[in-house]
TrEMBL record:
Name of this chain's protein: Glutamyl-tRNA(Gln) amidotransferase subunit A
Gene3D superfamilies, A to Z: Amidase signature (AS) domain (3.90.1300.10)
Domain called Amidase: residue spans: 1-445
Swiss-Prot/TrEMBL catalytic activity: L-glutamyl-tRNA(Gln) + L-glutamine + ATP + H2O = L-glutaminyl-tRNA(Gln) + L-glutamate + ADP + phosphate + H(+)
GO molecular function terms noted in the UniProt entry: ATP binding; glutaminyl-tRNA synthase (glutamine-hydrolyzing) activity; transferase activity
GO biological process, one term: translation
Length: 454
C-alpha cells in the first residue's frame, strides 16, 4: 500500500531519491514468513520506513544528496540501518536531503528539491525534507532523519509531523555520512509521539563503533509517551525561553505558541519564563563550528576513494583530478561551507573564530544547565516562520540560516529536543511546530510532554 502511495504521489512531492522496491518486498516477505512459522519477530516487524540518504545501506545507493557520491554503493550498513533491519522494519528507500545535510529547505539537493505536501510550492524544511515530506504525504509511517542544526525538527515543524533529536551520543553515528561530527545526531521522525518513541528505542543504544556513543541505558521513551497520553502534567515545571520571540517571528507562529502554553497549563503544568542570554549567539557560533568540522570531514571526498572521478584520462596529476572532481561534485552551499571552515580554522584566525565559537558553545551549555535547575523541560516555537516558498531564500544564505534560530542551541549543548505539531498558523494555514527541550539523557521527559500535548 505504501509503495502504491509513493507511486501515486512522489511525482509531485519528490521525497525519495531511491526506491528499494525489491529489498522492501523481500524484507516484508521475510517478516511474513517468520510470523506464519510462529517465529519471534522484531518490535517493528513489517513497518515501512523512509530512510534519509545520509545513512549507509549495504548495496543500496547512498548519495547524501550530492553528485560526488553518485553511483556509490556502500559496502556496509550504518548501525542505524542494521538495527532497523533487525527490528523487522521494511526500508522503502532513501529520502531526499540538502547536499551533505547543509541547508534548511532541501533545495540544496543535487537532485532537485522536495515539495511540501501541504503546499507543493513550498519547502518541506531541511536538510531532511524528504523524510518529513514522506510522512506528511502518508508515503511511510516512520522515517529517519539526522539533526546537526535542526534538520529533524525544522522539517517536522513545517510539515506538521513529529521529529526528535535524541541526546548527542544516544544513537550511533557509525555509517552516518559525517557533516559536523560533534553535532550530528540521528533520530526518529513519525506522525505521532508514541510512534517516534517506538522507533527511538529501536535505533538507540551504545555502539563501540562510534567513539562518542554513550554507554548508559536507553532513556525509557516509550513508557514516557504512554504516560503522557494520559494527559496529566500536574507538577511538571516548564520554562518558556524568552530569547525565542520578537523580530523575525511570524505572528501566526507566536499565537500558536501562546495557545500551546495555555493548553499545557490546562494539562496541569506550571509555566514560567526563563532567560538563556547566550542563545542569542548560537546561530553565529554554529555557522563557524559546523563549517569548520565539515571542511575537515569532506576532505575524504578526494576522487580516489568513492563515487565521482573527473578528468582521470592519464594526462593529469592526482591533484588536478581531485580538484576537478571536487569542483564538479560539490554544489555551491557545500563549497561555501568548506571555504568558511577552512578560513575559520586557519592559523591566525583560529582563536578569533573557531576558538570564540567553542567558548560560546560552553556558555550555551551553562545556560541550559542553569535553566534546568528550575525547570523539567523548556519550550519554544520550533521555527520562526512556517514553510516558505521554494526559491524565496535560495540566494540569501543568511535568510536561510535564520530558519535554525530556535533549534541550534540544543545541538551545541548536545541536549535532546523534539518538535511536535502545534496546529496550523492562523495567518497562512500552514503547520507550526512546538519545540520541547530536555536535559541530556532525559529524553523521556520531552516524550511525556509531547504525547500529552499532541
Ligand atoms: N540548517 C542547518 C545547516 O544548514 C541544518 C543542518 C542539519 O541539521 N543537518 O547547517
Amino acid at each position: 500500500a505504501h509503495l502504491d502511495r509513493i507511486a501515486e504521489t512522489d511525482g509531485k512531492v519528490h521525497a525519495f531519491l531511491h526506491l528499494d522496491t525489491e529489498g522492501a518486498l523481500a524484507q516484508a516477505r521475510k517478516v511474513d514468513d517468520a510470523v506464519k512459522a510462529g517465529e519471534q519477530v522484531g518490535p517493528l516487524a513489517g513497518v515501512p520506513l523512509a530512510l534519509k540518504d545520509v545513512m549507509t545501506t549495504e548495496g543500496v545507493p547512498t548519495t547524501v544528496g550530492s553528485k560526488i557520491l553518485e553511483g556509490w554503493l556502500p559496502p556496509y550498513d550504518a548501525t542505524v540501518t542494521r538495527k532497523l533491519k533487525e527490528a523487522g522494519v521494511v526500508i522503502l528507500g532513501k529520502t531526499n536531503m540538502d547536499e551533505f545535510a547543509m541547508g534548511s529547505s532541501t533545495e540544496n539537493s543535487a537532485y532537485g528539491p522536495t515539495h511540501n505536501p501541504w503546499d507543493l510550492e513550498r519547502i518541506p524544511g531541511g536538510s531532511g525534507g524528504g523524510s518529513s515530506a514522506a510522512l506528511a504525504a502518508h508515503q511511510a509511517p516512520l522515517a529517519i532523519g539526522t539533526d546537526t542544526g535542526g534538520s529533524i525538527r525544522q522539517p517536522g515543524a513545517v510539515t506538521g509531523t513529529v521529529g526528535v533529536k535524541p541526546t548527542y551520543g544516544g544513537v550511533s553515528r557509525y555509517g552516518l555520512v559525517a557533516f559536523s561530527s560533534s553535532l550530528d545526531q540521528a533520530g526518529p521522525c513519525a506522525r505521532t509521539v508514541l510512534d517516534a518513541a517506538l522507533l527511538h528505542e529501536v535505533i538507540a543504544g551504545y555502539d563501540h563503533m562510534d567513539s562518542t556513543s554513550i554507554n548508559t541505558p536507553v532513556p525509557p521513551v516509550v513508557a514516557a509517551a504512554r504516560e503522557g497520553l494520559k494527559g496529566d502534567l500536574s507538577g511538571l515545571r516548564i520554562g518558556v525561553v524568552t530569547q525565542f520571540s520578537g523580530e523575525g517571528y511570524q505572528q501566526g507562529v507566536l499565537r500558536s505558541f501562546e495557545a500551546a502554553v495555555s493548553q499545557l497549563k490546562e494539562l496541569g503544568a506550571e509555566i514560567a519564563d526563563v532567560s538563556c542570554p547566550s542563545f542569542d549567539y548560537a546561530l553565529p557560533a554554529y555557522y563557524l563550528i559546523a563549517p569548520s568540522e565539515c571542511s575537515s570531514n569532506l576532505a575524504r571526498f578526494d576522487a580516489m576513494r568513492y563515487g565521482l572521478r573527473v578528468g582521470d584520462d592519464g594526462t593529469r596529476s592526482t591533484e588536478e583530478v581531485m580538484s576537478l572532481t571536487r569542483e564538479a561534485g560539490f554544489g555551491p552551499e557545500v563549497k561555501r561551507r568548506i571555504m568558511i571552515g577552512t578560513y575559520a580554522l586557519s592559523s591566525g584566525y583560529y582563536d578569533a573564530y573557531y576558538g570564540s565559537a567553542q567558548k560560546v558553545r560552553t556558555l550555551i551549555t551553562q545556560d541550559f544547565a542553569k535553566a534546568f535547575e528550575n525547570f523539567d523541560v523548556l519550550i519554544s516555537p520550533t521555527t520562526p516562520t512556517t514553510a516558505f516558498k521554494i526559491g524565496e531564500r535560495a540566494n540569501d544564505p543568511m535568510a536561510m540560516y535564520k530558519a535554525d534560530l530556535c533549534t541550534i542551541p540544543a545541538n551545541l549543548a548536545g541536549t535532546p529536543a523534539m518538535s511536535v505539531p502545534s496546529g496550523l498558523s492562523d495567518e497562512d494555514g500552514l503547520p507550526v511546530g512546538l519545540q520541547i527541550m530536555a536535559p541530556a539523557l532525559q529524553d523521556h521527559r520531552m516524550y511525556r510532554v509531547g504525547a500529552a500535548y499532541e
